[in-house]
Specification:
Elements (H helix, E strand, L loop, with lengths): L4 H7 L1 E4 L5 H25 L9 H4 L4 E3 L12 H5 L7 H8 L5 E9 L25 H11 L3 E7 L6 E3 L10 H9 L9 E2 L7 E4 L5 E3 L8 E8 L15 H29 L3 H11 L5 H22 L8 H8 L1 E2 L4 E2 H5 L4 H17 L1 E6 L9 E3 L10 H10 L1
Antiparallel strand pairs: 1-7, 2-3, 3-9, 4-7, 4-9, 5-6, 5-8, 10-11, 12-13
This protein binds fe (ii) ion (FE2).
Fe (ii) ion binds next to loops.
């Protein structure tokens, strides 16, 4: 498939025709419908006392399947639901778009229509797919993308015609404009100046660079079955029990990605230990190993992510962990390789004393990312916080971080 990477990098998205080969569409629809029926039974079983009989299927504005969590339902009938992710039109194209040798699948999901009309207010309005306190300020991402290209590419691949997604071209490499902020404050569930609606025929795909400003415009009862997820070099596969049902080539691919995932975890541990040991040269070498060739802005973004890792390891090792707010506990255990978060498997590699010292090393980074007062900017996930939404402080760099760590 021919792609225009320059245009993708500039606009932040690209629409690709017939990603699903037309002769595979009917079979793929069937495989996913089997998955949907199985998930519906799970939701019905899990419904609460006040829920309708179908549970989430009936209450959600966007019922969503996560194939990773449904590993035991991948069998001969449904293997194609996983294997489409490995098709060259997705996997090889994602590698090209990311500029890497072997992009790995991060998550495999399916977005479905709700059973009743939720209109334009049924879901989140315009947003960028992250919340700065748990990741990085927007500028951390945009500077990295401008310097090195994206680390992650997200996909929507509809099995039926789908015009739900809107994007603002170019917004993945800049802050919100004043005009956008005014429009978002006025109504975050309406078209914004400069936005475009994607119109995908069944089998077409749209690949986009987060943090692009985007909006799932309408959640009505029209048939929607849209494959959703992404690719990155940084991945993690908690359950690969479905491997036996996949083709030998697909098995080899997942096995290779899983091995790389273990290596990435080792590399993250080594980076954190370099900081712990106040070894600036080892830290720099570790960053180069983690993402060869990325420049200063990429290194800065990774250092911000690692400050979150250090904080979460500190939380997980704390005797007071169970008394932390539920949300903090959730984030501490969350595994999110794209932002170098590995939850308990990473924390298990450090002692309590090491976790304390590690947090002391990275706390100055965390302090720099916060203002004295609560902040809020439209177009992000989450509520008010002291963490900067957009701006990365000028004094934050890898050099300044290491100077602080090594001179402590
Ligand atoms: Fe989103």
């Amino acid at each position: 498939m021919k792609i225009n990477r320059d245009q993708f990098l500039e606009e932040g998205y690209v629409i690709l025709p017939q990603v699903i080969p037309p002769q595979q569409l009917a079979g793929l629809r069937q495989a996913y419908e089997i998955m949907v029926e199985r998930q519906k039974m799970i939701w019905a079983r899990q419904r609460g006392p006040h829920d309708p009989p179908g549970g989430v299927w009936e209450t959600s504005a966007q019922p969503r399947l996560n194939l990773g969590a449904l590993a035991d339902q991948i069998d001969a009938q449904t293997a194609s639901a996983v294997e489409i992710w490995l098709h060259e039109n997705m996997q090889a194209v994602s590698s090209q778009l990311l500029g890497v040798a072997d992009a790995g699948v991060t998550e495999m999901m399916l977005m479905c229509n709700p059973v009743r009309d939720h209109g334009t207010g049924g879901h989140r309005g315009w947003h960028r797919d992250f919340y700065p306190p748990h990741a990085a300020p927007l500028q951390g991402y945009t500077d990295d993308i401008l310097e090195n290209g994206p680390r992650y590419v997200q996909w929507n691949l509809p099995l039926y015609d789908d015009s739900v997604l809107w994007v603002i071209p170019g917004s993945h490499i800049r802050r919100n404009t004043a005009e956008e902020n005014a429009a978002l404050i006025k109504d975050s569930h309406a078209p914004v100046p400069g936005a475009i609606q994607t119109h995908l025929a069944a089998g077409d795909g749209v690949a986009y660079i987060l943090p692009i400003l985007h909006w799932g415009s309408v959640y009505n009862a029209k048939m929607r079955r849209t494959i959703h997820g992404g690719f990155s070099e940084f991945t993690h596969y908690p359950a690969l029990s479905y491997l036996e049902h996949l083709s030998p080539a697909a098995q080899a691919t997942f096995t290779r990605w899983n091995q790389r995932s273990e290596q990435t975890l080792d590399q993250i541990e080594a980076l954190l230990r370099a900081a712990l040991n106040k070894d600036g040269a080892a830290y720099q070498a570790g960053l180069e190993k983690l993402h060869p060739g990325r420049g200063e802005k990429g290194a800065r973004l990774s250092t911000i992510f690692l400050s979150k890792s250090a904080k979460r390891i500190h939380h997980l090792k704390s005797p007071d962990f169970d008394r932390l707010p539920a949300q903090e506990q959730g984030w501490a255990t969350h595994i999110h390789p794209m932002t170098l978060q590995w939850g308990r498997p990473l924390a298990a590699r450090f002692s309590v004393q090491e976790a304390d010292a590690l947090w002391a090393r990275f706390k100055p980074v965390d302090d720099l990312l916060q203002a004295a007062e609560d902040q809020w900017t439209p177009g992000f996930q989450g509520e008010e916080t002291r963490y900067y939404f957009e701006q990365a402080p000028a004094e934050l760099s890898v050099a300044s971080f290491l100077a602080g760590v090594c001179n402590e």
